[in-house]
Amino acid sequence: MFMKDSYNFEYLDNYSCEMRRKDSISSRYGIDEILLLFKMLDGQKYSNIFCDNNTLIMSNSNRIITISNLDKYKKLDLLKCFPNNSIKIEDALNNKKKSRLINKFTLSVAVLSTLIVGGCVLNKEKSHEINNSYKEVIMDDQTEYDPEYELYKALNSKKLIKNNIDETEELVLNTEIPSIDIDYMDRTSSTDFKYVREKYDNEINDVSKKYGVSPNLIRAMVTQESVGIDTNLMQITWDAWEDHVFNVPNFETMTFEKYVLTDDSSKYGDGFNTISRNDLNIPENNIKIGVFIFKELLEDYYNYNIPLAIQAYNYGPGNINNLLEIESSVTGKSVNELIDDKTNVDFINYTNNISQGDPNYLKNVLSYLDDKKIDIKSIDKNHIGNLVITNSIVLNNQKAKTL
After folding, report:
1. What is the side-by-side strand order in the sheet with 17-21?
2. Angstrom distances, CA of residue 380 to CA of 158, 187, 260
3. How far is Cα 18 from Cα 27, in angstroms, rounded to an integer?
4. Using an 8 Å Cβ cutoff, are 141 and 62 in contact?
5. Same domain for 353 and 265
6. Which residues of the chain have pLDDT under 70?
7. Last-in-domain residue among 105, 136, 155
8. Is there a contact between 120 and 296 (Cβ–Cβ < 8 Å)?
9. What interhelical angle do 147-155 and 31-41 show, nearest 10?
10. Helix axes 191-211, 215-226, angle to 10 degrees
11. Which of 108, 99, 87 is closest to 48 using CA atoms?
12. Are 58 and 199 contained in the same domain?
């Protein structure tokens, strides 16, 4: 039987995705688009699902999906991407039962391609608007519904997130806002802080409204990083982030935006906002990229643990992981338990064990907070839809000491 649709995904690296269909049409996507496409492909049931040679193959009477290099998808939970077929996928991945092999003729129409997974895997899923009849249409195995065409329409729509705020569901992660119990100096009356606030507040407030990080935290980080007197306000290390794709929700326009640091804009298509080394000297660009880095650490690495993500901005993930391993060995708690405890700042007791970075970076940033409540807004990484999550934390004001 002729296979109507075939989709082949093959992992190459951590920045973008290329997908090939049976018609040899190649498309390049970021991880959020691929997750969205997986969700759309999940609208059909797949009678044959099996895992062989590190490759997951799913098929029914008119479609085949091939996902290669499964060991590279350690942060990509396929069961969440394919909820309608999750039981069969789990069985295949765990080798609990073997699905029937797809015949060679079926496999021959699946043209191999490349899949490149985007940077903060799983933590930037795209919200979008789908026709109300979507589920009813795609569950029909004989439908002419084309998931990739629907994806194309969604990606090119200005309504990736619903513009009507009344229709946008927002979830506050902490109904009772937790507080950080930590000693820190209050330096909000310092000349450095006042200089940053007076000179860069317009840029800081603009970035805050667009990308969901409260202005007090951005202002504090700029002050700690450069005191506002260096053109590299957020002290971005170019070599560490060159060609890294940031795919971020803009909460003002309610759309997703792609940014990448590169001196060769020709490497990227029309959907990318490229920032060169010289562009990075523009205050708003520099602050923006610093916020993107912080949010990626917060969402993709540290499960919305705000204090840990702040320290990670200075230390980097490698040093933070070493720090947490030390704390884990002392406390007996697992690294995941330490990350999941949003109010645990005891890791600062072990920062002197790390030779690189500023062991007091968290306290130094907190010392410049003129508002003791920090708010972070994000798109829920586990929900394809219009769910926005807000994570907040507040400092214990009694712990502040005037400098």
Report:
1. 26-29, 17-21, 5-9, 63-67, 55-60, 48-52
2. 19, 34, 22
3. 5
4. yes
5. yes
6. 1-5, 11-33, 73-77, 96-176, 380-387, 398, 402-403
7. 155
8. yes
9. 140
10. 130
11. 99
12. no
What tokens appear for 149 in the block? 């065409």
Residue 244: name the closest of 193, 206, 293, 205 by CA.
Answer: 293
Measured in residues, the chain has a length of 403
Residues 147 and 185 in one domain: no
The HSE-up count of residue 58 (CA atoms within 13 Å, CB side) is: 26
Tens digits of residue pLDDT in 194-228: 999 999 999 999 999 999 999 999 999 999 999 99
Residue 224: which of 295, 311, 283, 301 has the closest Cα? Answer: 311
Q: Coil, helix or strand for 208?
A: helix
pLDDT score of 238: 95
How far is it, in rounded angstroms, from Cα 230 to Cα 237? 13
Distance of alpha carbon 10 from alpha carbon 151, whole angstroms: 19
Give the residue from 112, 145, 131 showing the smallest Cα distance to 44: 145
- Rounded CA-CA distance 327/314 in Å is 18
What pLDDT score does 126 carry?
32
215 lies in the same domain as 362: yes
Domains held by the chain: number: 2
CB atoms within 10 A of CB 229: 10
Residue 38 inside a domain? The answer is yes
Q: 378: closest CA among 271, 261, 286, 300?
A: 300
Q: Are both 198 and 66 inside the same structural domain?
A: no
Q: 29 and 177 share a domain?
A: no
Residue 160 in domain: no
Reading the block at residue 162, the tokens are: 């619903």
Pairing assessment for the beta strands 184-186 and 400-402 based on DSSP bridges: parallel
In CATH, what number is assigned to the domain containing residue 382? 1.10.530.10
Q: Which pTM does this prediction carry?
A: 0.62
The pLDDT, as a whole number, for residue 376 is 94
Mark whether 261 and 319 lie in a shared domain.
Answer: yes
Asked if 77 and 134 sit in the same domain, the reply is yes
Q: 116, 135, 155: which is the final residue of a domain?
A: 155
Q: What value, to the nearest 5°, has the Cα angle with vertex 126 and ends 31 and 124?
A: 55
**Contact (Cβ atoms closer than 8 angstroms) between residue 105 and residue 13:** no
What range defines the domain where residue 391 resides? 165-402
Query: What is the SS3 assignment for 66?
Result: strand
Q: Name the one residue in this structure whose structure tokens are 């000179």.
A: 199
Instruction: Give pLDDT, residue 216.
Output: 97
